[in-house]
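> call design_seq(struct)
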């Protein structure tokens, strides 16, 4: 059964439309991102959602601490880690 998560954009800190976690919604979002690019509002919203609901809980569950894990689970790095 699909679940709905409320998310907030990091740049504006304002609530945005909920993301329903199902295949059709993901494909619709990816179609919009294909037009807007990942730096557009839809790409930002999806990446924020993934960071908050997937990456951050995994980092905490793994017990990672310190500057590097914090940068992986929060904020947007300017360059990908090598």
């Amino acid at each position: 059964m699909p679940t709905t998560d409320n998310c907030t954009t990091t740049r504006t800190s304002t609530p945005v439309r909920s993301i329903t976690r199902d295949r059709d919604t993901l494909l619709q979002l990816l179609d919009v991102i294909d037009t807007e690019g990942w730096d557009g509002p839809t790409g930002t919203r999806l990446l924020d959602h993934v960071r908050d609901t997937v990456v951050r809980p995994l980092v905490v569950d793994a017990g990672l601490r310190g500057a590097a894990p914090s940068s992986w689970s929060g904020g947007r790095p300017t360059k990908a880690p090598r």
